[in-house]
Amino acid sequence: MPEHTSAKSRGARVPLVLAAGSKFGKYKPEIERDVRKVEIVRDRKMQKILRLWKTIQYDSAGNDEHGDAYNQGVANGYRLGFVHMIEIMAKRIGHGAAEVGSFALMLPEIKEAELEGVSAPRSPYMGHKFGERAGLFLSALINSSRDSEHVICLVHMDFLIDYLGCGNRKKLTVIGDVGKALGCHMSDGEIIVEGNAKNVAATFMCGGKILVKGNVGDNLGYYMCDGEVVVEGDADYQVASDMEGGKITVKGNHSSSNCAGMTGGEVHFEGEEDPSIAEGDFGVVSNDMDDTWHVDSGPIKIYHKGKLIVDK
Q: Which of 32, 212, 262, 291 is the most exposed place for a label (fewest CB within 10 A)?
């Protein structure tokens, strides 16, 4: 079990790491949403994590969120490789869920220090795409941790963490909202988000389970090939675009142009609105160069409120 750590913020006690094995209801009331700065006791393990953070150089893979499949695959492959590199380096620290939770709470302070130059940046990448770099770094810390379950609190931040759970293999509970590409390239484990998620959640996901208790942005499950995603709130447009396998359930409302280019998998729409299925595009994959490829479709099953409306 992860140990408990706490920090002080102007006299108020703020939980850093909450018992991963306990039920959410037991610790939800403890969250202080108005906290911005926390004072962390920097023991040897935390000092090593902070030193690793300052040492790494991350060159963003560019603005590829809505680029063609090839370029997105290359960019996300770069990010996954970055996570694996940090995992190898972080394993020597011997950290656990407590240190991961502490680092997450320190992120606003770290960002402010980088922007102000207080931390004496060692490379031009310091401060660049902070949310993306932080999400990938946290993903690596979680995967390389000695603990199998983690809880991190993000409600104290005024910015979003992108690519959280990239290549995930553990059980992660997130308290608060997350940015884009939640669980990209996730291969195992479970991610529970007690909040909302932005665009392209579960992109290139190949295993495990994601539960978002709030809403999600557009392109949920883009090129997802396996695993399961459940969204208890609403989903923006293009759910299951180019999906190859796995299962997606949207319990709330949904927008238009869903399942375009879908070649396999199962999608459940439980909202009142018509799913607006782009059925004519099944088995057709396109890119930004106006090239198209017709591929062999696997089993495609789409449901609306429990009724099977597409069976191919």
A: 291
User: Does residue 118 lie in a domain region?
Assistant: yes
CB of 44 within 8 A of CB of 264?
no
pLDDT in tens, 162-206: 999 999 999 999 999 999 999 999 999 999 999 999 999 999 999
Mean pLDDT in residue range 231-251: 95
Please state the φ and ψ torsions of residue 132, each to the nearest 5 degrees: -70, -45
Same domain (yes/no): 140, 181: no
Whether 264 maps to a domain, the answer reads yes
| Whether 143 and 181 share a structural domain | no
Number of domains within the chain: 2
- Span 278-305, mean pLDDT? 64
Map residue 149 onto helix, strand or coil: strand
Instruction: State pLDDT tens for residues 68-102.
Output: 444 555 577 788 889 999 999 999 999 999 999 99
- Indicate whether 28 belongs to any domain: no
Q: Which residues, including other chains, have CB under 8 Å from residue 37's CB and lie 6 or more apart?
A: 9, 10, 108, 109
Q: How many CB atoms lie within 10 A of CB 269?
A: 29
Paired tokens of 105: 């709470």
Domain that holds residue 128: 1-21+35-147
138 and 7 fall within a common domain: yes
Q: Where are the alpha helices (DSSP H) in the chain?
A: 24-27, 44-55, 69-90, 97-116, 130-144
Q: Which residues touch 262 (CB under 8 Å, ≥6 apart)?
A: 240, 241, 242, 243, 281, 282, 297, 300
Tell me the two tokens of residue 83. 């996570």
Q: How far apart are the first and last CA of the chain?
A: 46
Q: Do 85 and 203 belong to one domain?
A: no
Answer whether residue 230 is part of any domain: yes
Judging by beta carbons within 10 Å of its beta carbon (0-12, 13-18, 19+), is residue 172 exposed, middle or buried? buried
Q: Given the structure tokens 């690596």, which residue do they identify?
A: 140
